[in-house]
Amino acid sequence: MKILVVGSGGREHALCLALRRSPRCTALLCAPGNAGIAEVADCRPVGAEDVEGLVALARAERPDLVVVGPEAPLVAGLVDRLEAERIRAFGPTAAAARLEGSKGFMKDLCAREGIPTAAYGRFSDTRAAREFVRAKGAPIVVKADGLAAGKGVVVAQSEAEAEDAIERFMAERSLGTAGESLVIEEFLAGEEASFFAICDGDDCLALGAAQDHKRAFDGDAGPNTGGMGAYSPAPLVTPAIEAKVMERIVRPTLRGMARDGHPFRGILFAGLMIEAGEPRLLEFNVRFGDPECQVLMARLESDLVELLLAACDGRLAGAQVRWRGESALAVVMATRGYPGSYTKGSRIEGIVEAEKLPGVRVLHAGTARDGAGRLTAQGGRVLGITAVGPTLAEARARAYQGVARIRWPGGFCRSDIGLRGLARERPPGQTP
User: Fold this and answer.
1) What is the distance, to the nearest Å, from the Cα of residue 53 to the centroid of all Cα atoms in its chain?
2) Lesser CB count within 10 Å: N end or C end of the chain?
3) Is the pTM of this model over 0.70?
4) Residue 237 resides in a domain
5) Of 33, 59, 93, which residue constitutes the final position of a domain?
6) What pLDDT, in 10s, does the model give residues 220-235?
């Protein structure tokens, strides 16, 4: 099979490596890819949000399968366009991708289907939004309705902070059209986890859980980012909690979407808040997370191509997912200054040395080669040092050994990835 992957991040590098492991994959393309992906796939200079360019590329190459990594082209209807060309694509249609593309759409579906989530209100008027905040009090959560690249959520600790977010999103249009309308919801206490299921419109299979680290600095300090590290499996998500998530969140969502005429096919990513063993839904994403995908693909033993084809063709009933009996952990290295302003072009060395360590793989995100073939940083989140090990502690130790071999003065990472999971695994009294 010829397979085309859309995207350029660490998620897409992880997907490319997993697809390459399948005997079904005889040719692999990626648009646009990055310097690491270029080592395993034929990269084409078409942007992930360039729907017209991607359709033209697919029309010319006629891949047997297109795997769409990021959310923006899904929300923009890339899968619909490819299906019109009779090209099989893994991912939801634009109508189904509204589960991520519109927070209000997702919350209304939860209300109809009785899915456990935070109480909320929807607003397109600043005065009504402010009145809702004053009536409910703080802490309270303000969310832009549309896609905002991870910048559209404010967990406000005071009414003034919430009203400031309303002003920035709606009046000042700091997020463009994404903030024209808002969802404002109650604050949920607990611990967050990322849960994944693969869906074919009717049936679904659990792909397990991971935990991400969103804040930029150690101790969950600093601004929110796209993710500074992750580990899987997540000890927080017990088999009992997984069963609740599938029965109370994932399957009702599939039933509701199918009944409304928008069957969901692809990856359903449920962002969860878990308290006292009870999961509630924070948000849906309609694709793999990044960096959660890196640790999931590191653990996956099943043939990824076969799983994706089964989802595309409505054949998930009776299918199973096999996992390696190991833990995986990824540490993201980012350019200094991220998630604020940063300078591109700094040199990176040491990847070959890092990958000589057992179980370690360096996944690329914002990387490129300069004219002399040297690796340079071209984005905010740049590398994901990913390791597997027989325990979470061993996977963590290997990942940080890999980090120590990377020579990149322009980069930084958190030093505490995975400690929360270790605290759950470790008997009382032991230290990391």
Assistant:
1) 24
2) C
3) yes
4) yes
5) 93
6) 999 889 999 999 999 9
